[in-house]
Specification:
Radius of gyration: 19 Å
Low-confidence stretches: none
Shape: elongated
Mean pLDDT: 88
Number of helices: 9
Amino acid sequence: MAQTKTRDLLVDVARGLFAKNGYENTTMNDIASASGKGRRTLYTYFKNKEEIYYAVIGDELSAMSDRLREVAAKNISPEDKLVQIIYTHLSMVKAAVHRNGNLRAEFFRNIWLVERVRKEFDQTEREILTRVLSQGIRMGIFDVANLRLSVDIIHYCVRGLEVPYIYGRLGAGGPAQSRPIVQRILHRALTKD
């Protein structure tokens, strides 16, 4: 229990320093000093700054996965679940990027760092999408010839919307205006009628 608290403290302190100073301008010494823990304690939990950065991003992605599971468990139609999953994904990415200040620039500059951490989240999201599409198929709502390919297309389409969504480039009306379009696209792509 104490180990988890110490690790969480180190990650929270690192998140704050990365957000304030950026990844490049934050050192392991800065993290150790700001946390009130010694360098030895910091290095007990993390080998280097890159590893603690992964932990910061990993925590954000873990929270996203939990929230997507909650949406998938709702007692609503599979079509509505997909739309909610898409907007939950986009809004949580946007919130994480904006919440983390200077980390926002690092997120886009060091996208390869984020990609390494993101693999587990991407797999979880694909599993959630697979369950929702499968539910829709079983209920006779969706007509999907290739489940895996459909999941991949939806997943990569949502990922492709992240940056425009973060910067508010999906139209002046935001989700209120784009949601009906997304619903219509999904309906046309996945249903029999």
